[in-house]
UniProtKB/TrEMBL annotation:
Residue positions, PTM N6-(pyridoxal phosphate)lysine: K160
Annotated organism of origin: Microbacterium paludicola
Molecular function, one GO term: L-leucine-2-oxoglutarate transaminase activity
Cofactor(s) the record lists: pyridoxal 5'-phosphate
A GO BP annotation: isoleucine biosynthetic process
Pathway annotation: Amino-acid biosynthesis; L-isoleucine biosynthesis; L-isoleucine from 2-oxobutanoate: step 4/4; Amino-acid biosynthesis; L-leucine biosynthesis; L-leucine from 3-methyl-2-oxobutanoate: step 4/4; Amino-acid biosynthesis; L-valine biosynthesis; L-valine from pyruvate: step 4/4
Superkingdom as given in the UniProt entry: Bacteria
Reaction catalyzed: L-valine + 2-oxoglutarate = 3-methyl-2-oxobutanoate + L-glutamate; L-isoleucine + 2-oxoglutarate = (S)-3-methyl-2-oxopentanoate + L-glutamate; L-leucine + 2-oxoglutarate = 4-methyl-2-oxopentanoate + L-glutamate
Transferase found in the keyword field: yes
Pfam annotation, one family: Aminotran_4
InterPro entries registered for this protein in UniProt: Aminotrans_IV, Aminotransferase-like, B_amino_transII, BCAT-like_C, BCAT-like_N, BCAT_family
EC number(s) per entry: 2.6.1.42
Name this protein carries in UniProt: branched-chain-amino-acid transaminase
Similarity field: Belongs to the class-IV pyridoxal-phosphate-dependent aminotransferase family.
Length: 316
């Protein structure tokens, strides 16, 4: 895709290595953005993605922050449709199976000065994805990263760009060393931000769903959809700063009755424990997370009616 607009030699080619100039800007300055989206096969064989225009719009927001050209929504959708059109059999059938699609754009212009690149490449790669959990949904253990943050105010936290993930690798390794599955980050104000690759939500005793608001959070499409399903059920939804104290005291007093995380890969995963800063708190798990998970996956796999118009058919 060219900065001046329009495709330049678009094609579908067999998966394999690509060649880059050693001075390509992406290798030095990390000027790149990406998306993650799944294609689901329904029982009637048809193939659908979930809210892909939201991924396209988020890619545009990421592009603006990373000084990359904004791919029009129609071009984003076309790139996915054409990939699937080559061979729909790539989309597996079966319980919780999907084809994971990874659209990404990077600066391939070769130069060593620090400036936005004029030549970029846009690719979509795909990989079959099985169920995130083997043997049923299991609560995960979360490590609180005290020492490291993934994003700064005015930085790139809200963009889906490699630099944020680069910043999260060492804390993620720290989480593993401490027997945890995932890391939870605090934002620049010390409030709860998100996990390395998932957003976080809390359920209060009165049924209210609370999720952090912060300028450095990646605006998750799964979270956004969960909030909408919760509103449909008549639940109150609050998007506001959540402090670590509110979280820990809420769990201790019983005011918080469930803690869970969400994202395209796992959909929803209950959080069973929070560890770090010298403490280890067991977290309450409950029915709401699991029932929202079921409703969302039922929509994605076409098992219930898509009343929100969230599905986008790819093979017709
Ligand atoms: N936060 C981060 C940092 C992520 O990488 C992801 C995964 N894209 C999410 C949240 C969840 O976003 P989504 O629901 O759109 O997958």
């Amino acid at each position: 895709w060219s900065v001046k607009g329009g495709w330049h030699r678009p094609r579908v080619q067999p998966y394999g290595p690509i060649s880059l100039d050693p001075a390509a800007a992406v290798l030095h300055y990390g000027q790149e953005i990406f998306e993650g989206i799944k294609a689901y096969r329904h029982a009637d064989g048809s193939i659908h993605t979930f809210r892909p225009e939201q991924n396209a719009l988020r890619l545009q927001r990421s592009a603006r922050r990373l000084a990359l050209p904004e791919l029009p929504v129609e071009y984003f959708l076309q790139s996915i449709r054409e990939l699937i059109a080559v061979d729909g059999a790539w989309v597996p059938s079966g319980e919780n199976q999907s084809l994971y699609l990874r659209p990404f754009m990077f600066a391939k212009e070769a130069f060593l000065g620090v400036r936005p690149a004029n030549k970029v490449a846009y690719y979509v790669i795909a990989s079959p994805a099985g169920s995130y959990f083997t043997g049923g949904v299991k609560p995960v253990t979360i490590w609180l990263s005290e020492r490291y943050q993934r994003a700064a105010k005015g930085g790139t936290g809200a963009a889906k760009t490699g630099g944020n993930y680069a910043a999260s690798l060492l804390p993620q390794a720290e989480a593993y060393e401490n027997g945890c599955d995932q890391v939870v980050f605090l934002d620049a104000d010390g409030n709860i931000e998100e996990l390395g690759g998932m957003n976080i939500l809390f359920v209060k005793k009165d049924g209210t769903l609370v999720t952090p608001a912060s300028e450095t959070i990646l605006d998750g499409i799964t979270r956004n959809s969960i909030l909408e399903l919760a509103r449909d059920r008549g639940l109150t939804v609050e998007q506001r700063p959540v402090s670590l104290t509110e979280w820990r005291e809420g769990v201790a007093s019983g005011d918080i009755t469930e803690v869970f995380a969400c994202g395209t890969a796992a959909v929803i995963t209950p959080i069973g424990a929070l560890k770090g800063a010298g403490f280890e708190d067991t977290q309450p798990t409950g029915e709401l997370a699991l029932s929202l998970r079921e409703e969302l996956t039922d929509i994605q796999y076409g098992r219930i009616e898509d009343t929100h118009g969230w599905l986008h058919r790819l093979d017709a």
